[in-house]
Amino acid sequence: MTGLLSQAVIGRHDELAVLRRGLESAADGRGETIVVAGEPGVGKTRLLREVRRWCSLRGGTALIGRGVQTTTPVAFRPLVEALLAADRAGARWDDPDVAPFLGVLAQLVPSLPVGGAIPAGPSMPSLLHVAEGLLRVLRTCSRGGPGVLLLDDMHWADPETRGVLEYLADHVPEEPVLVVVGSRPDRSLDAVVTLMSLVDRRSARLLQLSRLTADQVLEMTRHCLGDSAVPPAVQQLVQERADGLPFFVEELLAGLANDGVLVPADGAWHVRGDLRHGVPDTVAESVRRRCASLSQRDRQLLLDAALLGRQIDTALLAEVLDVEVTEIHGALRPAADLGLVEFGPVGARFRHALTRDALLAGMPGPERGLRARQVWASLRAARPTPSDELAEVTAELAVTAGHFQAAAELLLRVGRGALQQGALSSAEAALRRALALAEGTPLELPLMRELVMTLAAAGRADEIFPIGEELLARLDGQGSDPDGTERGEVHLALARSAVAATEWALATAHLDRVVGGEAHAVSAQVDTLRALVAIGEYRLDDATALAAAAVEASSAVEDADLHCEALLVHGRCLRARDLEAAGRIFERAKDVAHEAGLAHREARALAEWGFVEAYRRGGEAQLEVARRLAASCGAPETEAFAELALGAVAWWREAPETGLAHTATAERLGRRYRLGQLVPAALVTGAALHALRGDRAAMDAALAKALPLAGGQTTEMVALHAHCLAACALAEGDLATAAAELTAAVEMLHPARPAVIPPLVALDPLVRSVRGADAGEFGADLRTYNFHRDGQVTALLDAADAVLLGRAGEAEAATATIEAVRQKLGSNGFLHAVVSWLVASAAAEDGWGRPVVWLTDALESFETRGLRGAADACRTALRHLGRRVPRGADEFSPREQEVLALVSEGLPNREIGQRLFLSSRTVEKHVERLLAKTGTANRAQLATYALRQARGAGIAAGPSSLP
Length: 963
What we know:
InterPro entries: AAA_16, P-loop_NTPase, Sig_transdc_resp-reg_C-effctor, Tscrpt_reg_LuxR_C, WH-like_DNA-bd_sf. By secondary structure, the protein is mainly alpha-helical.
């Protein structure tokens, strides 16, 4: 018994079984993503290590990457580690499956053998390129066994890595690949929210690790000591102090052993001295004590390594300290024996981030600053121009050394690189950190400019204006911009953000002040933004002309970002008139962005294209991809737009709960980032979803918040009257109010002709026709808008035509049209029921069609949804046709409801009478009245009716209970 045994996996039988099955399924070609979540020290890394071991035993390859806690996130960092691991493992980069993406991956890991120069481009590749390339690398790794990707500490993952992980989670189920992710469960972290969303939509399985039980702690203690006979005092201490966390079990035992309190002798462990005296209360104390056993030279080298980050680059450290690499390894071995450092597939690293923190915190401030300056000087001498991968670590060292301007310069470099990738969140974090360090230096203005550009690209209208106005004032004061080029760039950025905030006058004011710069580039940007202003002001013809000019001008400039933006605006102009043409433009914009690696532009193109496809085909897959991509790259305006569009799609799919979740997110993003009309649009869409459920109180509450923000915008106000007030009135069976609200919506719509039309205004011609009013030319006018190509909107217009056909005596054509309409509206039960109800009333009056069947279907649908007002309207119509119809629950007396409940239990009259203290004859009379009221023929049907009513929480059964 010479030392402690660690790395135990105790108390994880079920979790290990799930992981093993996942590995076996991956080997059979059925991949999976598994999230292993738990608090720090609970044993997540141990499980990932077991998977790696199993993978090795099966002849597979496990690629490992880790998130790192830094002040400034570095895009794709864990994935770069995984790719480096693949390279060291002898990945077949020339494999035909991987080769098309090798140049893309080599932009992240330049050491990859691309066989030529890395393709030139303005930025790093997009998330989708990286994700697909990594998936193909994992696929090739699986040819000798399962391919495994292990990503640890993903609660610190950068937004770009999160986006790639979402892609993998959606695609590995059909691949021989297992992805296992370790993360803390802290939902205040964006990365954890992303992981939990994967679990919620079943793209990933969750393994939630809990603390060890007392028995498991004892088992682990025995494993670590290699002895079942644990001294009772040690057992008690570990139970009291470890809190069931495997990490603390090991740390406590390691501390005791290194302090000489727990010592091996005669084949057993013995306690020497006061067990509680000197036992570390925190990991920092444990680290400090273990470091004390190191030689002065080894301890100093370990501290120097800590100054250079958690990952220990032995070659770099040797270069900086001017020693041999063998000396570095010699110093790290004792630290590894003490549990401070671990060796893995990516080299040496501190065992935990907090281990490194504890080392640095243990140094007195002046000593830490002095040593940081010495290491900084050596690093600068060895690497005058640090690599992109080293820039962040070097910046952190510079801060510790007190070289703030140098740190700011490095962070500016990090920020610019992230901005070129479209990694807007990472860019913003780096630039803000740099600005705080560069205050009062010449570097401040370049940093402010880059931050303004980043905020504009992200649609961050919440913070850009004060910074931008200050930057303009300082540029004016310095007189360093004689041709106005820099000021022009700032005005363009502020105009772009004003557009995001739907502040059209402010956007125009900034555009009027744009001068300088290359002619085509400037004119393309100005025309693009002026087109957006024109769309907002309902000047669609002007917008279309401006957007077309912007596309032409941007084509003459080798700037993919500019060209993509112009295409996006042109597509928005075409959307109101030609959905197919708009879809082609958005698809082209997506391709341009994808090829250039512009993640934020690609996200917007996917969102706009997805919006068109939702109208045309009712799908939402592209919107989901756009939402995730926008969230991962830090483009909140696009993310909010996609969430709002998903909320609208949910209305058409009649999924109010899902839709309300999307609109709530859109509202939150809109408020947080000051996204103008997006907030009232989200509130109105949410109100429409409440109206779909007939929840007037919730609808009114949402509209009360929306009205002060809507500012009279036509699209929102039309939607408010048509999708909210009219729809809710229909749910309540109030046709007169619905007609008045639809009329108000139409009157608002005519003079403005906005680019986006709330589709439910298409109900207006139908309601007018049913009520015998003149439908006017509005139905024909609606068909001039391209949005009518949506199948459900077309169905509403066709329903109005059918009513007129029936009134004209063309019964056969009218009936055929309505049956086709009902087929088209099958995916939205609410609209299906509304049209069936309205048309049936007209058909009954004019003597055509199948009004009883249509009313019966509508009644069942309304009752299933709990829309009593509309259901009562259907009952009234059926009674006018001489039909017996079931009554609503509120038409039963309290005693009848009691009898009905007992009938549903199958009780005979005698037993019902005993329970209710009634005679059998009285019960029989109640049953007879219930049969009459419900329209049921016998006791069995009555019982079925009662059960359905109970399942509907008081909603009466539909016509299937009719005889």
